[in-house]
Write a structure and sequence with these properties.
Layout: H1 3-18, E1 21-32, H2 72-84, E2 92-93, E3 96-99, E4 109-112, E5 119-125, E6 131-141, E7 145-150, E8 161-166, E9 173-179, H3 186-203, E10 215-225, E11 236-241, H4 244-263, E12 271-276, E13 281-287, E14 297-298, E15 305-306, H5 309-317, H6 323-334, H7 338-344, H8 348-362, H9 368-378, H10 387-395, H11 405-418, H12 420-427, H13 433-444, H14 451-462
Amino acid sequence: MAQGETTIVTRQRKKYMTNKYEPVIGLEIHVELNTKNKMFCRCSADYFGKEPNTHTCPVCLGLPGALPYTNKAAIEACIKIGLALNCFTPSLSRFERKNYFYPDLPKGYQISQYRWPLCVNGYLVLDNGQKIRINRAHQEEDTAKLMHRFGSQKSKVKSQNGTQIDFNRSGVPLVEIVTEPDFHNVEAVRDYAKKLQQLFRYLGVSNADMERGDMRLEANVSVRPEGSTDLPNYRVELKNINSFRFMVAAIEYEIKRQITALEKGEKISQETRGWDAEQKSTYLQRSKEEAHDYRYFPEPDLPELRIEESRVKSLESSLPELPWIKSKRFEEEYKLTSAQAKILTETKELADYFEQTVEHGKKHGVEAVQIANYIINKKVNIEETLPTQIIEEIKNKKVGIIDNEEELTKLAERAIKDNPKSVADYKAGKIPALQAITGGVMRLSSGKADVAKLRPILEKLLKQ
């Protein structure tokens, strides 16, 4: 967070704490899965940047008579997310129709889950030790994308004005993770959201790129008198926020707005609000619906899901080492500080790179802490720097040199076989030809052969 942003957040927090109010916040995080196909049809789910309305079919366009069928890969990805979040997976799950009218919903309803979700009753522990309860993680389909275009009023081309719909995103697999109202400050909100993004990437189920819309944040915000344990009788939903920074700003603004209204004796309505990044304020979108307003009922065109315990255990065994578990292991196994371990496990790729470098360093007496300090302080580009190069830099000399006589002999024999002309020249008395054969060994060894030890081996083999 930028220094100026920190100052604003601190000042606003002092404001609402002075007024003796406590925020009560629950989160709903939506993540698009990176499956090959959409949730209920075989259209490609790789829609980003593609020509509008080119990844569609009768199913995702909601045409009459088109029947959906379930994407198994998406179901398994959702269960993996739930397992990583300590959720329970019931043996029975069902899809339901969530009925509401909106232009981006071609069927007039969304296939989602409410009463029979795939994953329930989980939790995630934050860096400060707080346990955030997770009500459920359920599977649904994404909606189409609205594109608002407003050209000049004098324009004679109607298509340049108004709202257009791209149905490429319609039907893309979407998982929604819903928490209990366990957050009371924005630091916890940010920590939780970032942990989920990290988890999705570790599991490989989503890119979780917020700029592309892979991951979207929603918050239910209320305030109550400090010391009260009762939940407020209203909640304001902040909808579809696409960055951690905007989420923090929107929640802080909404807390301040609600406290100001309560201090004036006003009643706060249950509603959905958006975030205006330019005005730095929330704005009313519509009155907040309750679950019964959506008239949920079981999806008649899809069978219920029977989930075998053996399949759940198989998926659980396939999970990678989770980032917070890996971070703790790094502290204990490699004697790193908590800060070092957190940085090095930020991505699975960086964590794997660090451990590969540690393994190489063991052969040359380089400690894991030295490697950690080097990678962190030098901001190493892991895609351009080999682990051996890091060890060489730390040791300030070439490492990984092949000086074993047996290995050098094998390389020399291969180079002699691959360079018959140079061998013939050498045996004919042309001594410089030995350099060409030496070059062949260096190519085979990626430049790691010890030339001083190699030369007598080559001379011996060439005399045979």
